[in-house]
Amino acid sequence: MKVVEQSIVKRAKELRNQLNQYSYEYYVKDDPSVEDFVYDSLYQELVKIENNHPELVSEDSPTQRVGGRVLEGFEKVEHDIPLYSLNDVFNKEDIIAFDKRVQKALNRQVSYTCELKIDGLSVSLRYENGKLVQGATRGDGTVGEDITENLRTVRSIPLQLKNSVSLEARGECYMPKKSFMRLNQHREEEGQDVFANPRNAAAGSLRQLDSKITAKRNLSTFLYSVADTGSLASSTQFDALQELADLGFQTNQERKLCHSIDEVWDYIEDFQEKRGDLSYEIDGVVIKVNDFDQQEKLGYTVKAPRWAIAYKFPPEEAQTTIQDIQWT
Ligand SMILES: NC(=O)c1cnc(OC2CCCC2)nc1N
Description:
- The protein is of the alpha+beta class.
- Helix content is 37%, strand content 19%.
- The chain has ten helices and eleven strands.
- Strands 2-11-10-3-9 form a five-stranded mixed β-sheet. Strands 5-4-7-8 form a four-stranded antiparallel β-sheet.
- It is globular and about 70 Å long.
- Bound molecules: 4-amino-2-(cyclopentyloxy)pyrimidine-5-carboxamide.
- 4-amino-2-(cyclopentyloxy)pyrimidine-5-carboxamide is lined by residues 84, 86, 115, 117-118, 172, 224-225, 286, 305, 308.
């Protein structure tokens, strides 16, 4: 290889790593260390090098997030390990009944990891040796759709993990409230139908056959589990969430390890209050038995784990506006 190319190869690698680090800080940590113009100028430098030396383009390059081609349709994806759904409860009595069932089955006190229930789409992200190889929808839990091209455009999804592990991560892809409002405003101005809620907007954005459209929808993610817990070092849900964060995934920071069902209920009441202040929509709280061995002992029903429950908030009462109040 000519000497000049080696310095270019080195520069391209430096730029890729630097840009991926800046993108991680901005989209995953929400704590950028440089201004946008710094990112943009380095990005343009990398685009120029890759245009002059296409052989230097690597799959984890930030320039490869948005594909060029438009798909005819989506391939089916078989989930080796099903993506389960959750049994829903709507009151404190049912939470207490869940805790009693769990304690009876395990014949001991149990700790729970509480997570906000993000109102988005369940997705699965498969990595081989740290590289994103496939992204799919949940579908019916056993068969989903291959939306890899669209998920690659979601900036908080790492194209390359911090370790070269092979695993399938699972989580929620969602549209932040602000992006939802902006998108609907734009659609209204264009005379298009508006989306009813951020979840539908995220679903519509992930169903695009042209990933250039998905790339503009500012989607984000919170990862919360892996298909096979054996692929992680952690032996509890709470540690697994930190392990996923250490690999470069975005995880929801509001998680809480609770040592009693009273603590769980306090968490639920706390976020029923706070949900309006969050930058993303939630429709409840997911309560999971923390210890993986205990999860295994409890097992699954046909559709849902016995070791987890979803507490659903009552629908947010529509904020009555002055126009809605009956004066006469
Ligand atoms: N919408 C959410 O935020 C969410 C959904 N699902 C799960 O857990 C799966 C894993 C085992 C059954 C359900 N956790 C969550 N936080």
